[in-house]
Specification:
Helices cover 6% and strands 49% of the residues. The protein has 700 residues and is mainly β. Strands 44, 46, 47, 48, 49, 51 and 54 form a seven-stranded mixed beta sheet that branches. Strands 1, 3, 5, 6, 8 and 9 form a six-stranded mixed beta sheet that branches. β41 and β42 form a beta hairpin.
């Protein structure tokens, strides 16, 4: 009988890890040292079964599905869930990480104190004390806010250790006053705390001594894309014998100007080292550090020596190929699982020309990784270069892991309108292979849903999702919130009384709720808005959420009392002149306008009104009043008219007197000339004599 029992025991199906129909929630436990945790062990078996827990290879007895711990003080924690039925006996180990953040993180220089000298190499050291586990530790090095290096550790020891990371630097004058610091980060995976625990050092400020040359180079460093244009100015404020630029491209001949510019329209020299020189008491120069970069031609991800689906628990190697990138020492390859950063590779090659680089990642997938998406990203950390740093990413690489269906993370979902239930991100919540069939049911409606129908804004509700294949099924309830881009329900025009509050005029729908901005002529206006009388015109509304943006333009009319515009209001003219009195008024509604004189209305009109006075006489002199009235007020403006009488006209008299004087003068001149032309002559009788005139003119 005993032999028969033993034989029957051998016939029991003893499942190994990966085949045992057990799942954990959470799938992996990440717990801080001296903290507690709980975990649920479940199965999709329908037969009668018993569940029990074991720790450190000892059975704890049947304590049900949920295991609750006390304070964890064992670094080598192991926990196993056992299942036993009439036909099945198997167990599965729970993946465990016990972690401890560092006691301290500090930064120092190695074998050096005091200022640094330009061009010399120095070593910085980051000490991380008492951290666990070391294989999850990353030390990030920063200069200012720029990540400059990274150390990743592969120690498999699980108890706390102290680790050291070092960084070589070769400072130049631009680094004088730079601030270095390091950060210890524990990347504990998807089940670990988010964001990952971090401890940072104090800042280490460095002082760089360098020879002083009386020139200023601006900018102090240059980062330029290969084939791009670049320029830099060299300036001095002293008298000199000549200054210029030396460079393998774009050299500038020596000049006596105080400013010389190095310029290259298409930079193709990878190792260019331009410097500005000046001849003063002696020649000195200032070097311009130049970094020439080239983004990768392509970034691709693949598996090494493997094709097809992966088996749970086996180890696989992924490879990221980055083609034709420069400079390699500024390259960082980031590995992502979904949206989680899981690893990072930094390269130390000093070659400046383009190279091909490869980064590899070891993974050991489990059922939670079925459908997981890996991708790699090549990022060029260029310091003073473009922000954000240039990135090129690979296409996503989806992995398939064989095991029975299980919905391990029943996540709520927020799709946009026009999305089908088929688009639910199963890679984050559903595991199972062969690929399970998915069915949907809406809690508020009977029957199964057609998962290809597109969701609309009224489909937000509670849904049941069921995953099934030949190995079993798993069901969970999720809340689906259907999101959609903003919509504005607006009129084309609005009215508001001046100096009264104007709130947002339109209804802005959208999910998430959109941010609404109010503009006039491109200028943001804060609400509530108290417009003045002349603030009317076209306004714009903009509603934005993560799914899009919508704009609407409307007319805002400001209702206000009449306002007069400047015009001539004083007149001083002579009689018989023509006068035009012009009165301009603005108001909403348009004001009724009148002219009055001596308390009598003499003319009426709208908005702009004129009054003409033709051949004015003294009776038209006085004060004229222009009045403007609408429902919001009454305004008056006065016009003063002065009319002077006609003055005597002395011009004809003056002309007559002048003419009389001219005539008198002409007569006197004539009489004088006539008198001079007459006289007497003496003639001898007994002689023949010649006759001579006795005057100076005339003839006989």
């Amino acid at each position: 009988m005993l032999l028969l029992q033993r034989l029957m025991g051998l016939l029991l199906i003893n499942f190994v890890h990966g085949d045992c129909p057990i799942s954990f929630n959470p799938p992996e436990v990440v717990v801080q040292y001296e903290a507690s945790f709980s975990v649920n062990c479940s199965t999709n078996m329908t037969d009668d079964f018993d569940l029990s827990w074991g720790a450190f290879n000892d059975t704890l007895g049947n304590i049900g599905k949920i295991f609750k711990s006390g304070d964890v003080t064992n670094w080598e924690m192991q926990l196993t869930c056992h299942i036993r039925s009439n036909e099945t006996q198997c167990s599965q180990n729970l993946s465990f990480i016990v972690y401890k953040t560092p006691d301290s993180v500090s930064i120092s220089t190695v074998n050096h104190n005091g200022p640094m000298t330009e061009g010399n190499q120095y070593e910085l050291q980051c000490d991380v004390l008492n951290v666990a586990p070391a294989q999850n530790l990353t030390v990030n090095w920063y200069k200012g806010q720029t990540l400059v290096n990274q150390s990743i550790f592969t120690d498999t020891i699980k108890t706390p250790v102290s680790k050291t990371s070092k960084l070589l630097i070769r400072p130049d004058r631009a680094d004088d006053g730079a601030q270095y610091w390091c950060e210890a980060e524990l990347g504990l995976g998807e089940e670990g705390p988010r964001p990952p625990p971090k401890v940072t050092s104090d800042r280490l400020n460095i002082t760089v001594h360098y020879s002083e040359c009386p020139v200023q180079v601006n900018p102090q460093r240059v980062v330029v894309k290969y084939g791009g244009n670049v320029s830099a100015d060299c300036r001095t404020s002293i008298q000199h014998k000549g200054m210029g630029w030396e460079a393998s491209e774009g050299a500038v001949a020596m000049s006596k100007d105080s400013l010389v510019t190095w310029r290259v329209s298409e930079l193709t020299e990878w190792d260019i080292k331009p410097y500005c020189f000046i001849n003063h008491k002696e020649q000195c120069n200032a070097t311009l550090p130049v970094t020439i970069y080239k983004t990768p031609d392509s970034v691709s991800i693949s598996t090494v020596n493997h094709n097809g689906p992966m088996m749970e628990g086996n180890q696989y190697e992924l490879q990221c190929d980055v083609l034709n990138v420069a400079p390699a020492q500024n390259l960082t390859v980031n590995w992502y699982k979904g949206q989680t950063l899981v690893d990072r590779s930094i390269f130390t090659d000093t070659i400046k020309t383009p190279v091909n680089k490869t980064s590899k990642l070891l993974i050991r997938p489990d059922r939670a990784d079925d459908g997981a998406q890996y991708w790699c990203e090549a990022k060029l950390e260029l310091g003073e270069g473009p922000r954000p740093p240039p990135k090129v990413t690979s296409d996503p690489f989806n992995i398939t892991v064989y095991y029975e269906p299980n919905i391990i993370d029943c996540q709520d979902w927020s799709p946009t309108t026009g999305t089908s239930l088929d688009s639910y991100p199963k890679s984050y919540s559903l595991v199972g292979n062969p690929s399970p069939d998915i069915s949907w049911r809406r809690e508020s409606l009977p029957g199964q849903l057609n998962a290809s129908i597109l969701l609309n804004t009224y489909d937000s509700d509670e849904y049941e999702i069921t995953a099934s294949n030949e190995h079993g099924k798993s069901t969970c309830i999720i809340n689906i919130t259907v999101e959609y881009p903003p919509k504005l329900n607006c009129s084309e025009s609005y009215e508001v009384k001046e100096e009264t509050p104007f709130q947002r005029p339109c209804v802005a729908n959208g999910l998430p709720e959109p941010d609404v901005s109010f503009y006039k002529n491109g200028k943001l206006i804060k609400l509530p808005y108290y417009p003045k009388w002349n603030d009317g015109g076209l306004y714009q509304l903009n509603a934005t959420n993560k799914h899009g943006s919508v704009n609407f333009t409307f007319t805002l009319t400001i209702l206000h009392a009449p306002v007069f515009h400047p015009s001539q209001d004083k007149f001083d003219v002579v009689e018989d002149s023509n006068i035009t009195l012009e009165c301009y008024s603005t108001g909403k509604p348009e004001p009724n306008m009148t002219w009055s004189f001596e308390n009598k209305i003499i003319s009426t009109g709208w908005r702009n009104i004129t009054f003409n006075i033709e051949r004015a006489t003294s009776t038209r002199a006085g004060v004229y009043t222009c009045s403007a009235t609408n429902q919001f007020g009454h305004q008056e403006k006065t016009f003063k008219v002065e009319i002077r009488g006609n003055s005597p006209n002395y011009i004809p008299v003056v002309i007559a007197v002048v003419a009389l004087i001219v005539i008198i003068i002409a007569v006197l001149i004539y009489l004088w000339i006539k008198k001079r032309s007459t006289g007497s002559y003496q003639i001898a009788a007994n002689k023949a004599v010649e006759m001579h005139p006795l005057n100076n003119g005339g003839t006989c």
